Request: fold
Amino acid sequence: PGIDINREEAKGQRITGNPVITDYALFVSAEIKPTAKINIRPGLRFIKNSIYDAPPVVPSINTKFVLNGHLDLRLAYAYGFRSPALRELYFEFIDANHNIVGNPNLKAETSNSFNGSLNWAGTCKEGERFNIALNGFYTDFNNQIAFALADPASNQYTYFNVNKARITGGSIDAKLSGKALQASAGFSYTGYDRELYDDKEYIKLDTKKFLWAPEFNTSASYTFSKTKTTFSLYYKYTGRTPQYVTGKNAGNQSILYIAETNAYHQADLTAYTTINKHIAVTGGVKNLFDVTNVASSAASSGSIHDSGNGTAIGYGRSYFLGLNFNWNKK
Reply:
């Protein structure tokens, strides 16, 4: 059992008023092992929110079935509840380059999530461990909180409730662990579906049920034992990503059209070395490819808006150097 209390308060020039949201929660979880090869972990969470009506109980259950010495199956279900953050309700950021306003009428978001994975683990001849996992997931949202264009004329963005939204997909992940080398790679393919925004009827310009987006990531680190130095490389490829965007057609009707963000690459390179038992130095390069903005554009025929500004990804390539001091006394 346990208690969880979260309090969020904000004030400033870009916040309307001085809002406060508090979450009080009592949770309990357990572990049940009917046999040596079955593990069941149920959980319950009781929430009281200072503004929003939370469900009386939020349940979850995780299960693990050991199929043999190398293979196991994991299945899980969880009910989700999320109240809007203060920035989504009251934040205002308007200048020459931004026009973002909060939506104080947002509803709380709830969801039903299902996950499953098949995991295999083995040992190589040199003692390295190799893991590979196949994963599948499906989440059904009610009143999902989303960020979208509200007024094309002023390029104003705000937050909306999507009455019905679904996310589904799968992934494959592999990991190699050794004394000197650590490496991993993964590929995912995710589909998104949305229907209505804020109780308004929107005309879909495209009949696609799900919009799909790929993603690939890999990382590797190698440690030189003599110099006690570790070099690490992280790389991520995000494929062309479609999404539903709100807008107006020539007849001033509310529409949902598809906009796509172009594919892009990101990478980080770091080095870590130990000087002695107390001092270590770390340094490297973040956003190696210097990606700052990714173009996006309307993809559905019949849509009337084209986003030339694109999506901000980061502030560009940066370099860092750090000194770590650690001292322990028993």
The chain has one helix and 23 strands. Confidence is low (pLDDT under 50) at residues 299-308. Helices lie at 86-90. The radius of gyration is 24 Å.
